Amino acid sequence: MPAFNEEEGIETAVLKTHDAFQKTGLDFEIIVINDDSKDETGVIADRLDSRFENIQVIHHDRNRGCGAAFKTGIRYATKDYIIFVPIDNPLDTEDIDAYLPRMNVCDIIVGVRIERTGYSRFARFASFVYNRIFIPLLFNIGVEDVNWIQVYRRDLFTSNLIDFQSTSLFWLVEILIRAKQKQLIIAEVPSKMKRRIYGKSTCVKTVVILQTFFEMIKFFFLIRKEKK
Asked: DSSP states of 86-102 as a string?
């Protein structure tokens, strides 16, 4: 669970996700990556770390971005599967149950949002252009929603079968492109998007959206170069 300036919502999000996993009876851990927050996010996360044996907090010494935070989480993960959980969309048992039936037969399970909840008009437009136009046109990976909660086999990363470099939200797409190149099994499941209660998501900020689009174009030329 990457977190940057989420002091209002981080405790609720982590506890809700923790409770959901407990109810499933799964062996799990929650790794919170405090991406150099400037508020009390790190303090609150450390408090949760001290209360629960299966909650761990890692602090970045500078803000590195969501992709870098996820990569840090991979290094500290110990379970067989890894799931990216946004702070503003904590999981409940229904969310987890949607992924479980496919985990033993698929390498990656991608959540497909039924609707974009809480998006501004600009964010909805950018999401549509990104998911429905640019990604299919440039990469043709055959996934309907490339920018949401995904589950991965951990050994995809520990065996170096998949590596990714993006630090913006484009890392989600980069992993899927690399997975397709390796002919891995990718499945899609319906997923619900919850309305953010506290603060504003950094994902819908204009600068983050522009950075993601920039990394998309940069990666497009990179893979063209690799094919030569």
From this structure: -TTS---HHHHHHHGGG
Per DSSP, the three-state class of 48 is helix
What is d(CA 158, CA 162) in angstroms, rounded to the nearest whole number?
8
CA dist., res. 61 & res. 92, Å (int): 31
Range of the domain at 207: 2-227
* Strand ranges (E), the chain: 2-3, 30-34, 55-59, 81-83, 108-113, 150-153, 186-191
Domain CATH for 114: 3.90.550.10
Alpha carbon 127 to chain centroid distance? 15
**pLDDT tier at 163 (50, 70, 90 boundaries)?**
very high
> Rounded to two decimals, what is the model's pTM?
0.88
Task: Give the Cα-Cα-Cα angle 57, 196, 154 (nearest 5 degrees).
Answer: 40
Residue 121 burial (C-beta neighbours within 10 Å; 0-12, 13-18, 19+): exposed
Q: How many domains does the chain have?
A: 1
Mean pLDDT (whole number) for 63-71: 92
